[in-house]
Amino acid sequence: GLSRLFGQEQTRANTQNVVGSYGYIAPEYLYRGEISTQSDIYSLGLLIIETTTGEKNQPNQNEPSARDFIENVRQNWTDGRIASRYSMLKANDLQEIKVCIKIGLECVQIDRKKRPSIENIVKRLEGRCAN
């Protein structure tokens, strides 16, 4: 991700030249030029959501952020929708889908301080901690 440009002790920076794929750029970077390790978590969250739901974030010139896509997932990917979309799956597998969507949505919080750490995400995806 973009945060690989940091030194070992650096955790955030500001820039005037925003680069990256629209729709996957964290809002604090897109609108204020602030980049941090949590900016990469935001992008990861979008990829987790896309992979889990099978839906693609489609940003446009009028709205380069993923706001509409994220809101659609929050509103429409309810327990009932997940169960009907994946009706052939067992309860355990459905729970894993729900966990992935939940993790993805936590990763795309507007407040970067509320986003989980990569360590927390990995543990949860591996099923090593409570969700």
Automatic annotation (TrEMBL):
Domain Protein kinase: 1-131
InterPro entries: Kinase-like_dom_sf (IPR011009), Prot_kinase_dom (IPR000719)
SUPFAM superfamilies found in the cross-reference section: Protein kinase-like (PK-like) (SSF56112)
GO molecular function, one term: protein kinase activity
Top-rank taxon: Eukaryota
Name of one Pfam family that matches: Pkinase
PROSITE patterns: PROTEIN_KINASE_DOM
Protein name: Protein kinase domain-containing protein
Lineage of producing organism: Eukaryota, Viridiplantae, Streptophyta, Embryophyta, Tracheophyta
